[in-house]
Amino acid sequence: MDVVCLDTHVIIWGVRGKATAGQENRIEKAKYLIHTCEKNGIRMIVPSVVVAEVLCALTPSSYGAVSEFMHSRFIVAPFDTQAATHFAKMWRNRKQTKNKNNISRAEMKADFMIAATALSRGASCIYSEDIGLRKFAQDYIDVRPLPNVEKQMSIEEAL
Fold first, then answer.
1. pTM of the model
2. CB contact set of 23 (below 8 Å; sequence gap of 6+)
3. What whole-number distance in Å separates Cα of residue 78 and Cα of residue 114?
4. The sheet that has 43-47: what strands, in order across it?
5. Helical segments of the chain, H only
6. Which of 19-29 are b and which e, b meaning 16 or more Cβ less than 10 Å from the residue's Cβ?
7. Is 135 within 8 Å of 100 (Cβ atoms)?
8. Would residue 108 count as lying in a domain?
9. Which DSSP helix (H) or strand (E) runs through 95?
10. pLDDT digit string (tens) for 1-18?
11. Is residue 156 part of a domain?
């Protein structure tokens, strides 16, 4: 069975249905991705680091319900010693590109932790629109953008 990893914005767009101005079209794409994975029996992991990032935007009173929901719908993968081993290898071999991309050390570490968790759980790819994550993880795991939404044409549209 195939396993994929979902990054923070995929959860925000696809589950919460929230987007900043100019990103509204990503809500439908993220929902489509999640639905397609569920329909095709593809297991979706969400690193615990991603859950933490999602929770940061919420009120503390909702943490329990959101955490419970995440565990019921996805495989919430912890950042454990197996992931830490992948992280250490990636961090040690990282390219010195952070200043060119204006990505902070903290952001880079979070991206590496997400990629390391995906690798430790055998994910075939990470779905993310994050340019930093894509750049840092590209030598280790496939980082894919959200897929386009496939819609069936009605008979009227086909004519």
1. 0.88
2. 13
3. 10
4. 75-77, 43-47, 3-6, 125-127, 142-144
5. 8-11, 25-39, 48-56, 63-73, 81-92, 98-101, 105-120, 131-137, 155-158
6. beeeeeebbbb
7. no
8. yes
9. none
10. 699 999 999 999 999 898
11. no
Residue 4 near residue 37 (C-beta atoms within 8 A): yes
- In this structure, is residue 154 part of a structural domain? no
- CATH number of the domain enclosing 45: 3.40.50.1010
Q: Helix, strand, or coil here: 6? A: strand
Decide if 157 is inside a domain. Answer: no
Domain housing 124: 3-148
The DSSP bridge partners found for residue 6 are 127
The number of domains in the chain is 1
What's the CA gap between 114 and 100, in Å, rounded? 21
pLDDT (tens digit, 9 = 90+) per residue, 10-59? 999 999 898 988 899 999 999 999 999 999 999 999 999 999 999 998 99
